[in-house]
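User: Sequence for Glu/Leu/Phe/Val dehydrogenase dimerization domain-containing protein below. Tokens please.
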Amino acid sequence: MTASHPGDPFTHEHEQVVFCHDEASGLRAIIAVHSTALGPALGGTRFHRYPDTAAALADALDLARGMTYKAALAGLDLGGGKAVILGDPHQQKSEQLFRAYGRFVESIGGRYITACDVGTNSPDMDLIARETTHVTGRTLAHGGAGDSSVLTAYGVFQGMRASAEAAWGDTSLAGRRVGVLGVGKVGHHLVRHLVDDGAQVVVTDVWQPAIDRLRDELPEVEVVADAAALLAQPLDVYAPCALGGALDDDVATHLQARIVCGAANNQLAHPGIEKILDDRGVLYAPDYCVNAGGLIQVADELEGFSFERAQQRATGIFDTTRRVFETAASDGVPPAVAADRLAARRINEIGRLRGVWLPA
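Assistant: Structure tokens for Glu/Leu/Phe/Val dehydrogenase dimerization domain-containing protein:
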């Protein structure tokens, strides 16, 4: 996906959007199913304090569409969907709320399968699973895949290695200065991979406990005050790992890094950012290409989870990223456009002729 496209929801051509409200638990949620051409729509549930319902809807629509392309590019027989719960996850989580949400997921009949995302975790999925079977990312104790951020970060690291190869002819990040924006679940794991590979890592996060946890584990990591301070650093690689829209006109115009490769979804603030980066010689690894490891992890749960099998599949993100760069070079387009073309090609060639997926 080259960018997010908020606005009139009917321009998105999503198959289904469900608004969920349960007064007793305080649940307010939106489930968006973008496409089931390749199979049932799998995508996480984001629990976030949105300023209003319109912002939540725009995020759900954009994220759902991104999941369609992510699953297609990763070679999975799955479609794209996403859900958002409106509220503060630090204050409003409860068994009552998640079970009410689980009943709404169940009501869609298997066309949407949920999982973890920003603001939700595996124990939350266990609560949802008490009301629906259409949930992945459950705890290991309940036979699930556990924390999907583990392979999300691993996949981003593989994409970063492929980016380094394309930029510098060497897959190692040793000696490279990498700036990581956001060190929550995924960013924390990514920093560990980078440090193990010998990279010099500088980070920032708006959530101080995330910084404190990272400092306790990896005291050699440098911390700066905010995103502006991070972008002012002489970086080789910039890794946005927080919320979307991190790459706007100002960032794209002034970014010093040679590579952008991070875990955040919908990093490009609007169409055209990918061309600004490309014109300046900044190599952008498309977000939904490199952050597919978490989707691969929870999708494996549908077969009976094996971490080793899922990790082997996530290792393939290196080759997928390399293929995106090769296609971009051969077609003379930015990598974001190349990734879209590859994903769309698979959807068109493999997608079911009946158009939408229905339960058996």
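Residues 3-7 have pLDDT under 50 and may be disordered.
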